[in-house]
Design goal:
The chain is of the alpha+beta class and 120 residues long. 30% of the residues lie in helices and 41% in strands. The protein has a single domain, classed as Nuclear Transport Factor 2, Chain: A, CATH 3.10.450. Strands 2-1-6-5-4-3 form a 6-stranded mixed beta sheet.
Length: 120
Amino acid sequence: MNQLYAEVVRHHEHLASWLSGEAAPDVLDTFHGAHHPDFVLVAIDGARVDLPALMNALSTSHNAVPGLKIDIEQFEVVTHTPDLAVCRFLERHSVGSLRRVTAVLTGELRWLAVQETPVL
């Protein structure tokens, strides 16, 4: 579980550093490499976003949210096998948004699916 939690935190640190404008360009490559090619995000508006669309959107989002920090809270493992891990957590953005997230990662801890739900 510690490795899974560490991956979730690291991944969100990379995302926040990119969106805040603090990251070097290679962080986006690292972020991309953490995803399985079949990755799908179901965003807070219900939109289904595949990996190419996500990376395209992020490519133009450097410094889109200056000062952004993302904290991971209430982390729990739903299941963890050698092939698959499912976890849930609360994602707190320093700009005020809060999301409940369910994430599916492969056994190699590559992101396969994410479902985000806004906390109102």
